[in-house]
Amino acid sequence: MVERPDPQPARGQVLVRLRAASLNYRDLLMVTGKYNPRQPLPLVPLSDGAGEVVAVGEGVQHLRPQDKVVAHFCQTWQAGNQPEDAARHTLGGPLDGALQQLWLLPAHGVVKFPQHLSFEQAATLPCAALTAWTALFEHGNLRAGQTVLVQGSGGVSVFALQLARLAGAQVIATSSSDDKLDKLRQLGASHTINYRQTPNWGKAVADLGGADHVVEVGGAGTLAQSLRAVRPGGHIALIGVLAGGAAELNLLPVLMNSVRVHGVFVGSHAGMANLLRTVDTAQLQPVIDSTLGWTAIGEGLQRMQAGGHFGKIALTMCP
After folding, report:
1. Statement: the pTM of the whole predicted model exceeds 0.85
2. 134 and 120 in a common domain
3. Which domain holds residue 301?
4. Neighbouring C-alpha atoms within 13 Å toward the C-beta of 153
5. CA 161, CA 12: separation in Å to the nearest integer?
6. Where does the pLDDT of residue 241 fall: very low under 50, low under 70, confident under 90, or very high at 90 and above?
């Protein structure tokens, strides 16, 4: 913990007092040196944060003090295809992230969030919810009546379940915990599979009719099973590397079944606007596993590393 001088917004900037943050697996990889071992230090961690505007710089018209906002993960990706330099403009590395009391950001890099959400709930949206939204709707063109497969019960998977159900889709969910599978059913999953009891869970999904969309958060370690689970012509949104980033893989199922495998790098500001309209209209309630004080970030990251959480882990900032 360090003290820095209070920043002041220049032209086109806003100063945000942080009220809450949330944890992503990316943050764990970043602070353990696995995401980018060459990341220059010091770095203020965490990609997700929500707070209130306390000051605006010259030329800022659409925001004013006391507005409640969240920060966009990729500060410069406004709309359309991902820019080539998107990875150089992301919060929590390489740009300083949310674990600070006063955050100076470009005015275009924050957005107001729906009024029914707390700061903690809003702080769960920029990475996990937008990633799920981009996977299913911006890339996947999800339609009512289709089937979505979600893996586990982390933030992206739980948001994908909630958003898919809002769209009228059926959801199949996997987990190694029967207790978590019960919670996933309570959120609307029509079928659940314990992947420890059923190691060949891809075939089990195929036996249920297969999935039109797979929200693939495991990476190389689970992709072969996802290819078994997806229907011909289906879509796999490649999001995470929880089960590893490299492995030998048989690509014949991709070719023979015309499967689309689409990498997802969170999403654009336009996608975030679409997501927030849906969250507002549906009064969607993000699922928060636990809320800790911001100085307990180590405890939160250890809980994430152990995989004991369901949904998102939030941090409350001191006033």
Report:
1. yes
2. no
3. 13-124+286-316
4. 30
5. 37
6. low
